[in-house]
Amino acid sequence: MDPVAPPGSGNGSLLLPVLPLDDKCLLPGASLVLVLDRPASVTAVQIAARTGDRLLALAKREPDAAPRELHAVGTVAALRAAHALSPLEQRVELDGLTRARVTLLLGTDVLVAEAVPLEEGAAEDEWGAAVEALARYLHSHADLRAFLEAQRRSADAMSWVNLACQHLPITASARQKLLEASAAERCLKISRGLDALLRKEHS
What integer is the mean pLDDT of 1-15? Predict the structure, then answer.
């Protein structure tokens, strides 16, 4: 079985347990460490551990939203590690693999989603502007640059941009908008946003 393609319904869709994220957003190519204390979230991780170590990380529309009030676009994630901290708490480490859009959401407490993976699309000329803007920003933030270089697992340009998006000082809602954008749109938003952020910090 392809390690990036969890079991699905046979039509290209994936059937995965859902991990709702409070005020967080996981992007492909990035990692996330969480402490879970909701029984439904712990159960979702347990299901993932028994069915291929894959789950769908979906951000809530609002921090206190109901369990089913989730964004339609999330990230298929690999469950890299899970450790019980207590009978009611688990520490989990997730690696973002690919974007996916929910087509069907099942359940009321513990959720399972049918989702279709989303292609990144070609970024073409936008790569250079995004990477150059990222280089300018990281030149002024040596600690962040060192951290990202230690976290980087791929030489792919989109993976580098996504990893930076995961750790830049932006809100979870802004990160979700980047996740929903195509590769070209994301690169354009990053190139403009980082230069604006750098100007604001230096003003």
Answer: 56
**Within 10 Å of residue 187's Cβ, how many Cβ atoms?**
26
Query: Residue 157's CB: how many other CB atoms inside 10 A?
Result: 17
Residue 40's pLDDT is 93
β 31-36/89-106 pair status: antiparallel
Of 116, 103, 94, 98, nearest in space to 48 by CA:
94
Lowest mean pLDDT among 37-46, 55-64, 120-129: 120-129
Angle between helix 157-167 and 183-202 (nearest 10): 50
pTM here is 0.85
Helix (H, G, I), strand (E, B) or coil at 200: helix
Quickly list H helices, the chain.
39-50, 126-139, 142-151, 157-167, 172-180, 183-202
Burial class for 170, CB neighbours closer than 10 Å (0-12, 13-18, 19+):
middle
Q: How far apart are CA 89 and CA 82, in angstroms?
A: 10
> Can you tell me the distance from the alpha carbon of 71 to that of 73, in angstroms, rounded to the nearest whole number?
6
